[in-house]
Amino acid sequence: IRDICKDELFLTRKAAPALPEDLPIAQDLLETLIAHKDGCVGMAANMIGVAKRIIAFESEDGYLVMFNLSSSKSPGRTNGGGCLSLTGTRKTKRFQTIKVQWQNEKFQSRIKTFSGWTAEIIQHELDHCGGILI
What we know:
By secondary structure, the chain is α+β, with helices and mostly antiparallel strands. Helices cover 23% and strands 37% of the residues.
């Protein structure tokens, strides 16, 4: 379980692609997310001080870890957003449905469409990977 990074300068750095040797980082990320489950539903690796394209989040099927993700979006809405790494909430645009391409823990490519709350979580973590602070 790692400390939550609150350094905005670090959080604005774009994350580098994840590699198979980054699997321990993914495990740390997942364990840190589970330790904060009462106030957090998703995390990107930079939230634990590692600038790699890895996210973990709670989905309807349990916890999911994604490596090197990208997405395409469809029509959306505006929401407030909060983050363990940032103080307060901020308005941000989130899309209702997104198609995500990522790699699993074996670095096999996967594609799936997500909607609703899960899509919003993924978009927030994808912003983190891009160095975007909401």
